[in-house]
Amino acid sequence: METRVSSSSKEVIISDNQPAVLIGERINPTGKKELAEALKTGDIEVVRKEALAQTQAGADIIDVNVGMFGIDEVALLPKVVQAVMETVDTPLCIDSSNPDALEAALKVYRGKPLINSVTGEEHSLRRILPLVKSSGAAVIGLVQDDDGIPKDTAGRVRIAHKIVERAEMAGISREDLVIDCLAFSVGAEPDSGVAVIESIQKIKAELGVNITLGASNISFGLPDRESINNAFVVIATYAGATCLIVDVARVRPIILATDLILGRDRYARRYIEAYRERMRYEKQ
Length: 284
Ligand code: THG
Fold this sequence. Notes:
Elements: E1 3-6, E2 11-14, E3 21-27, H1 33-40, H2 45-56, E4 61-64, H3 73-87, E5 92-95, H4 99-108, E6 114-119, H5 122-135, E7 138-142, H6 153-169, E8 177-180, H7 192-207, E9 210-214, H8 225-239, E10 243-246, H9 248-261, H10 269-283
Parallel strand pairs: 3-4, 3-10, 4-5, 5-6, 6-7, 7-8, 8-9, 9-10
Antiparallel strand pairs: 1-2
Helix pairs in contact: 2-3, 3-4, 4-5, 6-7, 7-8, 8-9, 9-10
The structure holds (6S)-5,6,7,8-tetrahydrofolate.
């Protein structure tokens, strides 16, 4: 199962046979005052810097999210997508819960983006799937429906089946669908980690699709989030997640080590190359 995403000059393949694909999460105003302010005043420079830094840190894809209170996402999202495309040749993941903003951003995008996201909610399936089909994009499907996010594995698996079915009915192939099992914080939901890992394994076995994960939710509200996030991405990758939405500079070393141990980095070529690159930057 290969999911292909591209910019105008670069292609990224998400697959079990490849190293885990890292999606940089940092162009997102949630919890970032400086970026939120910059977006409000239309100062795109901060976005460009963040795009460049994440690409240098080894991001394979960059997530672009400008959603916050008091902003015109339909006008701003295409503007920011355009600015990122002018700065780096990394393919983009266009992240918005506003379908009109997604549609506007798709119009300016060159290449095949990853749309983030469709859910199992009826209004989302009806509005987003035709957009995916007509733009030829790939899409992330969140295991959430009109009753919310199920806490148990069976509920998540059921919604994944529904999304795949509805996508295929809309003429979108399974290759162009990446399922996100949605983690809650283990501080509030003790079985959240186990439910996500089980869901990844089951969805993979039953549907064969690629799997993504916004890994940072697992540690929300807890101290030393980095240790929890690191443990989670390792377990999730072993369970079958092929693509992770993360703070790339922080998570990449542990993912490179995981790929190496899982036999996806023959003779440690990527691991050693990335280590050399890192040392080069640290010396500067
Ligand atoms: N699944 C999918 N898409 C997603 C998510 C997901 N998109 C958004 C989000 N979840 C993933 N992106 C982020 C971005 C930032 C943070 C977490 C997830 C984050 N920010 C710090 C905070 O809020 O405290 C601020 C970090 C900083 O200042 O450097 O944690 O699950 N498909």
